[in-house]
Amino acid sequence: MLAERRHQMILRALRSGGPAAVTDLSEQLGVSAATVRRDLLKLEEEGLLTRVHGGAVVEEGDQPFAEVAGVRVAEKDALAVAAAGMIEDGQSVLLDIGTTAYRLARQLHGRRLTVITSNLVVFEELADDTAVELVLLGGVLRREYRSLVGFLTEDNLRQLHADWLFLGTSGVRPSGQIMDTTVIEVPVKRAMIAASDQVVLLADAGKFPGTGMTKVCGPEDLDAVVTNAPSDSATCSVFEQAGVKVVRV
């Protein structure tokens, strides 16, 4: 396998799954651990990742929607089913950008709900469902990420109110801080939080700690977390100590 191809696969694995060990990358790529270490050194020199003990992590840069849509689908669907069960008919629901929110939208067909979103894939999923009142926020189009962002999106959110926000993340720090990989999405997420009565974080185990260089919010801004992280996760304990309900699936 060419070095360039290996580098692309390493970065994709780190972006979708968080920190990865040299041994895991070696097995995935079918090359020696020594080769992986040389690749990681090269990628670190180029500023594309950070080496940590036994492996590496990507701390910045987001990934196009299409690249992550097929990652950990079963886990995201389990979170989506649990989240859908929290919503009562007649309520209003804000759905964040990202693939987990899209999986939740798939669970809302036929429900008498108002769904508000800047996620174009959510919009496309529910556009033909006449049971759902669908509100698409305005904004600047991010084509590769299938979302709308910017001051127009934030201004729209200031005019709206939602019973629920289902928030996505690229990473959850051990302190309970919710992170994102790109600065431009963060103001929209914060505006969504301000517009909502109940804020629920959807975060599969791969998001602990995941990636992200920009803080979205802290545990004090959350009402619940839906996750498949291990029950002994220290971060989940931080959430519970902060009064956040942890729903395990």
Number of helices: 10
Estimate the helix proportion, in percent. Answer: 25-40%
| Nearest-integer average pLDDT | 88
> Are there runs of 5+ residues with pLDDT below 50, and where?
none
Task: Characterise the protein shown here.
One of its GO terms (molecular function) is DNA binding. This is DeoR/GlpR family DNA-binding transcription regulator. The protein has 249 residues and is of the alpha/beta class. Helix content is 37%, strand content 22%. The protein has helices at 3-17, 22-29, 33-45, 65-68, 73-84, 99-106, 120-126, 151-158, 186-194, 234-241, and strands spanning 20-21, 50-52, 55-57, 92-95, 114-117, 133-136, 140-142, 147-149, 162-167, 171-172, 178-180, 196-202, 214-217, 224-227, 245-248. The chain has a 7-stranded parallel β-sheet, sandwiched between helices. Strands 1-3-2 form a 3-stranded antiparallel β-sheet. Helix 2 packs across helix 3 and helix 5 (73-84) packs across helix 6 (99-106). The protein is globular. The N and C termini lie far apart (38 Å). The relative contact order is 0.13. The mean pLDDT is 88.
